[in-house]
Specification:
The protein has 223 residues and is mainly alpha-helical. Helix content is 75%, strand content 0%. The termini are far apart.
Amino acid sequence: MARTVWDSTVGKKTVMAVSGLVMLLYLVAHMIGNLKIYFGAVEFNEYAHWLRTLGEPLLHYEWALWVVRVVLVVAVVAHAVSAYQLSRRDIKARPSKYVHKKARTSYATRTMRWGGIILGLFIVWHILDLTTGTVHSGGFETGKPYQNVVDTFSTWYGNVIYIVAVLALGMHIRHGFWSAAQTLGVGSRTRDRALKAAANVLALLLTIGFVAVPVGVMTGVVS
C-alpha cells in the first residue's frame, strides 16, 4: 500500500508538501532563535546551550537536538528525492522540446528546481561552517556560536553565500507554501488569494529575518 502511494504522482507531491511544511516550521523557529544574536553574546550562547539541554533530565544532553536533526534529515531527503523523481517524470511525459521555453516550463517551476539545488548545497556548507567548523573562517570555537557567527559574516564570501541562499529560500517558500496547500487540499478558488498573500508575507518575513543576521554583523551592530 505504502509503495503504491509512493509510486503515484499524488503520493510524491504529498510527501513533498508534508516534508516542506516540517522544514518550514523548523525555519520559523530557527529564524527566531537567530535573531537573539541582537541581544548579545551571553544570551545567544545561552540559547544555543539551552537547545542542547532541552528535555533534561528526561533526555540526555543533545538528545532532543539529535531528534530534531534526524527529523530534518528525513524531511530534506524525502523532499529532494520526491522533487527529483517528479521532475524526471515530468521530463519523460514531455519528450519533445517546445519551440518556446516558456511553454515547456513555468518560471515558478524553474525557480523551484534551481532554488532547491542552491539550498541543498547551502545546507552542506552551513553545517560544515557553523556545526562542525570544517570550512569555518578563523578559529572555530565549540560552545561559542556567537563568535562563530560573527566570524562567518565578517568575510565577504560568507555573506554572499548566505544571502544568495536566503533569497533562494524566500522564492522557494513563496511558491512552495501555496503549492503545498493545493496538494493537501487546503486551497480552493475562494482561498487562493489569501493563501498566496500568506505565502508572500511568510517568504518576506523569513527572508528579512535571516538576512538581518549578516546585515547586523556587516553594519557593526553585532560584533
